[in-house]
Design goal:
CATH class: Alpha Beta
Helix content: 40-55%
Shape: globular
Number of strands: 8
CATH topology: TIM Barrel
Radius of gyration: 19 Å
Strand order of the largest sheet: 1-2-3-4-5-6-7-8
Distance between the termini: 8 Å
Number of domains: 1
Structural class: alpha/beta
Largest sheet: 8 strands, parallel, barrel
CATH architecture: Alpha-Beta Barrel
Order of helices and strands: EHEHEHEHEHEHEHHHEHH
Bound molecules: flavin-adenine dinucleotide
Length: 310
């Protein structure tokens, strides 16, 4: 298997031409076909030289093995820097610590530490007996396991379980104070919400980078319910942009590219220089959006041998 897939960026994942750094999020594939599709996506996105690529951990910890397999494959077979999501759900502290230790032994140095969503068919979260209760506890625990780089989640529109905006901000601060080095936001569509949140984060004395999570949307109807569960508001202009496109996938893709591209370009005008893309394991949209930011495969010297990498 070729080990030349993707090149370690000598600029720490920051594009030398644009000064912009991007990272990509994947979910672990459920079938062999999905694995081939994901690997295709990884191959297509690798030349964009992301600062890191992360792999999610299924609700309720349901993908423990698949997440591990995907992350370690990326580490083994590419020059990309993988980050493994890890949650507190349904596991004791020592089980979670063991998973982290296995990652460390496999050479994984970056974790995304999360409380996690409850298992499917469960409406509310309750901590496992003997488990980490919140992401801040998890960050403290992981710090004791090894010297990981740790990213955590942040919520520009407030986490749905949080008692108030102020509490939510305080809990974010606890995660950073516990040793996290980066906060990646839940997806949002209204940039003013993010910019106000960024101000509040700075005013709270949180100085870790706050990286906007960008969700390119092609399936507007699908994202509506998901956004509601996450507490993400859908602006009227977004609904209008997808109006009448239910049976027009090309039209929806063009709108998706424009909406997410414009969102990033506007954030760049406000000094944002790092973006985390929820790729949904598809490359095309993310490639198109990165091009709008001046990051494209042809600007980096790389020969990807897709066949060899499969
Ligand atoms: C970038 C990103 C990646 C994600 N990846 C995954 C994934 O791979 N797998 C997955 O299952 N989910 C994932 N999620 C979703 C995440 O797990 C859920 O949003 C979850 O409900 C909260 O996780 P958290 O780490 O933000 O929790 P926490 O930071 O622990 O916060 C959870 C809630 O508890 C409150 N809280 C925190 N600390 C305390 C405290 N000490 N006392 C009282 N209340 C407190 C917070 O205000 C918040 O309401 C991701 C989310 C983001 C933004």
């Amino acid at each position: 298997m070729a080990h030349s897939l993707g090149q370690a960026s000598d600029t720490g994942g920051v594009s030398a031409t644009t000064g912009i750094s991007v990272s990509f999020e994947f979910f672990p594939p459920k079938s062999e076909d999905a694995e081939v599709a994901l690997w295709d996506t990884v191959c297509r996105l690798a030349p964009l030289q992301p600062a890191f690529v992360s792999v999610t951990y299924g609700a309720g910890g349901s993908t423990r093995e698949r997440t591990h397999a995907t992350v370690t494959r990326i580490a083994r077979e590419t020059a990309l820097t993988p980050a493994a999501h890890l949650t507190c759900v349904d596991a004791t502290r020592s089980e979670v610590d063991d998973v982290a230790r296995q990652y460390w032994e496999a050479g994984i140095r970056h974790l995304v530490a999360l409380r996690g969503d409850p298992p499917e068919n469960t409406t509310s979260y309750s901590p496992a007996a003997g488990g980490y209760k919140y992401a801040s506890d998890l960050v403290s625990g992981l710090r004791k396991v090894a010297d990981f780089e740790i990213s955590v989640a942040a919520y520009p529109e407030v986490h749905p379980d949080a008692p108030s905006r102020a509490f939510d901000l305080d809990y974010l601060k606890r995660k950073i104070d516990a040793g996290a080095t980066r906060a990646i936001t839940q997806f949002f569509f209204d940039n003013s919400v993010f910019l106000r949140f960024r101000d509040a984060v700075a005013a709270a004395g949180i100085d870790a980078p706050l990286v906007p999570g960008i969700m390119p949307v092609t399936n507007f109807n699908g994202i509506r319910g998901f956004a509601e569960r996450c507490g993400t508001s859908i602006p009227a202009w977004l609904a209008d942009a997808f109006e009448g496109l239910d049976d027009d996938p090309d039209g929806r893709r063009r709108v998706a590219e424009k909406v997410a591209g414009d969102q990033c370009l506007e954030l760049m005008k406000h000094g944002v220089d790092e973006f985390h893309f929820y790729t949904l394991n598809r490359a095309q949209l993310t490639v198109a959006i990165c091009r709008q930011l001046g990051i494209s495969e042809d600007k980096v010297p790389l020969a990807v041998d897709l066949e060899a990498a499969r």
